[in-house]
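Need a sequence for this fold. Nothing fancy.
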């Protein structure tokens, strides 16, 4: 079972106090596991899989794919910020429907060791936000709709181009050790 820890952030002091210090995701995967399991912020469990249509048995579509989580992260952040804006502006009656659609793909060169589908790159996502409210809250709703995107940490980070550093290690172990969880 492979264990990978990703997402350790040095947070600004105010955000560190609110979040307990860090956003983390620890993932496990292995040759005998059909999908990846992630523990997020040490308390939530998520599973991911790849679609059945990918080549080489990449997945069986038992859980959302990593790209699904990216779209969901963007849309849920946008909805959350819009809700916060509406609540802060006293809008007591509203309904929100939001959808995120990956609508432009590109490709890139990848090493020969990787399957061809790993060359796909996301070039554009469209987020459609529908806010319904009563006439009494029209102005507040309109103001929130024109500003909410500026407060979405996921959307602004994607638009700004997120930089990340992959750090990889290889451990050669006996086959029996692959069945044991690391400490």
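Here you go.
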């Amino acid at each position: 079972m492979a264990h990978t820890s990703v997402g350790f952030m040095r947070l600004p002091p105010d955000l560190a106090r609110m979040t307990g210090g860090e956003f983390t995701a620890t993932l496990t995967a292995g040759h005998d596991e059909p999908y990846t399991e992630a523990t997020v912020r040490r308390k939530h469990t998520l599973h991911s899989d790849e679609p059945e249509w990918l080549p080489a048995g990449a997945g069986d579509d038992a859980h959302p794919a990593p790209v699904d989580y990216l779209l969901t992260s963007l849309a849920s952040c946008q909805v959350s910020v819009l809700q916060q804006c509406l609540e802060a502006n006293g809008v007591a009656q509203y309904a929100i429907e939001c959808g995120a659609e990956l609508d432009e793909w590109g490709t890139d060169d990848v090493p020969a060791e990787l399957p061809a589908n790993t060359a796909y790159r996301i070039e554009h996502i469209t987020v459609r936000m529908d806010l319904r409210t009563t006439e009494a809250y029209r102005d507040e709703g309109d103001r929130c709709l024109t500003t909410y995107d500026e407060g979405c940490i996921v959307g602004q980070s994607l638009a700004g181009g997120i930089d990340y550093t992959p750090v990889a290690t290889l451990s050669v172990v006996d086959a029996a050790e692959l069945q044991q969880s690391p400490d």
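For context: The helical segments are 13-19, 66-88, 138-147, 153-160.
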